[in-house]
Structures
1.
Amino acid sequence: MNDKIQYVDKTSNIPLMGVDFLGIIDRGTNVIEFKPITLCNLKCKYCFVNSGNYDTNFIVDSNYLIEKVLDIVRIKGAYNLEIHFSPYGEILLYKELENLLKKLSDIKGISVISTQSNGLLLSKPVIKKLKKSNLTRINISLNSLKEETDCYLCNCTQYDVDKLIKNIYSLMNSNIQVLIAPVWFPGENDKDIEEIIEFVLNARNEGYSKSQLQIGIQKYLIYKTGRTLKKVQSKSWGYFYLYLSKLEKKFKIKLKLGPHDFGIHKRKRVSTLNLQKNDLLKIEIVSRGRWENECIGKINNSLGIKVLLKKPLVFSEELIGKIIEVKVIKANYKDNILTALFPHKL
Ligand code: SF4
């Protein structure tokens, strides 16, 4: 882990929307995604966001997030909203979590608070705090019940599966829903996925309900900027769903989960600037990024943009406050995540 940390609060001048790795993401549904931290306790070999070895990590102030989410709730309507923590890192490393969860659960209209986690930092006291702060569901990325396989996939020397399983039971006994979310690495953990399904079925036979313990198998995705497992190929979506169908038949369990299963539905989107690929834009550089060839630009008070610095340019403090013209290279309307390039004329 690197020591360089950039804190993001109201005085930082860093907007909370628009950048993929921090702040808040609105995908036009009733789910509002939170990314308050980029630190991770693991460095998984398959991590598609490349977490665990960023040059600079980011931690967002909880009050700043609360202020922004109140605006978003007003726009979307104060009913049936879900806050989902999906950091480019591990949420249990976020020191303000308890406080933030409590404040979120006090906001009218927020009925579900869920999070992703690798689960390794769970303990009885942590679970007690999560329960007290009204966490509804935790999605745990457990890829195998064998320590050796987990150590290999997560690139670590110790992975206490027994402790994690005990904590899964403690979560369920505390009425926090658990969704085990293994990634299927074709040819690597096929047997392990079946063992996890059997574990879920056994727990359900012990009396835990389908909502208390779910399983959501994830497709292995490969991104240019992420880490990948050698020799493991990503399959097409068609192949993946066929694989799930076969498992559903074999184990008589529902494995294909969609937005409906989580009550996700379309809702008003926070207004965007309708930026398009290749648009030229004047922005102010307000922060370094995770890597030396990345920085954060400010478009307006609520919208930021990730700026990739073209080689050989690297970030230096002198760039802060500079107004530059960048070229938009990615503008995704579904989630309003923006990326630009600088310099764009060479
Ligand atoms: S996959 Fe998750 S747990 Fe593993 S390094 Fe990436 S963010 Fe951390």
2.
Amino acid sequence: MTQNAAKRVDGKIAVITGGAQGMGAAHARLLAEHGAQVVIADLDDSAGEVLAKELGPDALFLHLDVTDPDQWKSVVRETQTHFGTINALINNAGILLPNDTLETDTLAQYRKVIDVNQVGIFLGMQAVVPGMKQTGGGSIVNISSTAGVVAFLDNFAYTAAKWAVRGMTKAAALELASHKIRVNAILPGEVNTPMIADLDLDVTATPLGRFGNPVEIAYLALYLVSDEASYTTGADHVIDGGYTLP
Ligand SMILES: NC(=O)c1ccc[n+]([C@@H]2O[C@H](COP(=O)([O-])OP(=O)(O)OC[C@H]3O[C@@H](n4cnc5c(N)ncnc54)[C@H](O)[C@@H]3O)[C@@H](O)[C@H]2O)c1
């Protein structure tokens, strides 16, 4: 960013789950660059601490397992103490397990994917809404996937969870609109992060002919967190290089 570029989220206090690497780290970097105070909340303490240090005093790392309601309570409390009331949440943490098929998933494997990718978002929204209501509004961004509009082969539980994220987003947006809390979903296509690094993906399935870069998704998250998106709620924002077009 140039030194004179506008700070589009100045004064916002944002929590980014799964913020230690991949797209979450890109969201944290870009929001901080644009004036937000960011909490990087992740299971991975060492990568999270390194990023928070790199970003300086407007960043804080907090340990969080998104599936644990008590850890959510302490993230809300510690953010309040350190920066103030949370007014933006990016529910980005997610997992993708190999060989995730209807016929082979054990109940434990299925529940694990649903727990992180779906229940984690429910818990996150529930944890931050009381503060947002008190302070007169906020923005929640839930990360779904193109697996939330089509099905991915061998990603049975993942596909189920990512469709659910869109439904939760719309239901929450409707419930919270009168409190000026906007809730939107981002549906990325294939993006170069550690999550897909070892997968054998066909780049020609994306009409633009390449995978996305995390910062390209971060610019959409930045917009949705910012007041520029003040009339946008309950919407699916597909950003996939055309993957879902054919
Ligand atoms: N990479 C892609 O192509 C792609 C495409 C569409 C959607 N997505 C979604 O985007 C989001 C980010 O994906 P990514 O590619 O950056 O993934 P990644 O694997 O690179 O990073 C995920 C981060 O989430 C953290 N995490 C995992 N489980 C957690 C938990 N229980 N509590 C807290 N943190 C946890 C990990 O430690 C890691 O830092 C995910 O929701 C993913 O499903 C990814």
